[in-house]
Each structure stands twice: as structure tokens, then as C-alpha cells.
Amino acid sequence: MRKADSLIRRLLPKEERFHELLGRDTENLVRAVKLFSDIARSSDLEDRRVKAVELKAIEHEGDSVTRQVFEALNSSFITPFDRDDIRSLAMDLDDILDYLESVAQYLVILELNESTPALQQFAGILVQMVEEIHKATGLIWDMSHERPIHDAIVHISELENQADALYTTVIADLFKKEGRGPVEIMKWKEVYDQLEDACDACKDYTHILGNVVVKNA
What SS3 state is found at 107? Predict the structure, then answer.
């Protein structure tokens, strides 16, 4: 009888486990993007170096949560949503965090201590996008929240459009601005490319959220 009860528990949906893990994942991402914003607004290279180490530690925590999501998928017979969607949500969150950590490392390794207006604007956009991701992810476990989830997805799309416009402007200005050598121009272009990729990854995440809503509403 005890073995039968154990088997039944294993076969039941593990919604609470995935809810808790993805919640931890998005909370971790919020911590990361706020720390990245601090890095973007700092003009002290040593301060950036210290904060980049802290961000790397947060990225490791994110990797750990991602592994736990995959382990939970492998050990769960039934999942609250399509298991491919859950896997994609975890992977996209990991990608966003990787981009943030990568940009922070670029700023340090390339010894860029300038806090440009564009860098600060990208950081501000990413903070808003990640906060919307955190909010929307916390709502997908109850499809009565379909409207606010949709609103969050729309807002992230609008922010991604802002990021695209910013990228186009800043790259054009970067090659026009006098006083920067070709090496410095290429360094900053690499940073802005990665920032645009981070914003694109946030938009990609909303595609999976949309799939979850369509399949389960």
C-alpha cells in the first residue's frame, strides 16, 4: 500500500515544483539585471570588476536552477504544461542571464569604464523587460490571469522595439563620432550587439509564454 501511494504521488502533476523553480529563476534574473544596471551606471572600472564577479555568482545560481528544472522534467511523468514549453522557458531565462553576464565581462575585459547614455538606456530597458518577465511568469499558473499576461507580453514587445531603435541610432552614432579609434569603436559595437541580443532573448521568452497561454487557457 505504501509503495502504491508513493507511485501515485510520483505520477501526480508537479505544478508546485515547477512553479517554485521558475519563480526562483525569474527572481534570480531580476537580481542579475539590477546588478547589471549598477554596472552600466558605474564609471569606475574596479567597481565594475567587483560587481561583474558578483554577477557571475548569480549566473551560476541560474545555471543550478536550470539544471533542477531539467531534472524535474526527467523525473515527472505528468507536467503542468507541455514539457517542451517548460524546457524552453528555462533555457530562455538562462540565455538572458548569460547575455547580461557576458556584457559585464566585456566591459571589464575590454577595460571600458565609460558609462555611456546608450549603455544606461539599454540597462533601463532590460530592467523593465525582466520585471515584466518575472510578473508574467508568476501568473501563468492560473489562466484567469490571461489578460495581465497578455499585457506584459505586449509591453515587452514595445520595449524590444525601443531597444531596436536605440541600437540602430547608437551604432550609426558610434561610427560617426569623432575621437574614437577603430579599436574602441569595435569594442563598443560588441557591447551593444550583446545588449540587443539580450533584449531579443527577452522577446523570445514571451513567444513561449504566449504558447503556454494558448495551449492552456
Answer: helix
pLDDT at 17: 85
CB within 8 Å of 158: residues ≥ 6 apart? none
SS3 content of the chain, % helix, strand, coil (to 5): 85, 0, 15
Phi/psi for 116 (5° steps) reads -75, 155
The Cα–Cα gap between 59 and 53 comes to 10
What's this model's pTM, rounded to 2 decimal places? 0.90
* Residue 209 to residue 85: CA distance in whole angstroms: 8
Angle at 184 between CA 178 and CA 190, to 5 degrees: 120
* Local mean pLDDT, 10-residue blocks, the chain (217 residues): 43 68 96 98 96 97 94 86 93 97 96 95 98 96 92 97 96 80 91 97 96 88
CB neighbour list of residue 89: distance below 8 Å, 6 or more residues apart: 22, 137, 205, 208, 209, 212
Alpha carbon of 141 to those of 67, 85, 178: distances in Å? Answer: 21, 13, 52
Provide the residue ranges of all domains of the chain, joining segments of one domain with +. Answer: 15-216
CATH superfamily of 15-216: Phosphate transport system protein phou homolog 2; domain 2 (1.20.58.220)
> Rounded to whole angstroms, how far apart are CA atoms 33 and 69?
21
**54 and 148 Cβ atoms separated by less than 8 Å:** no
165, three cell numbers: 531603435
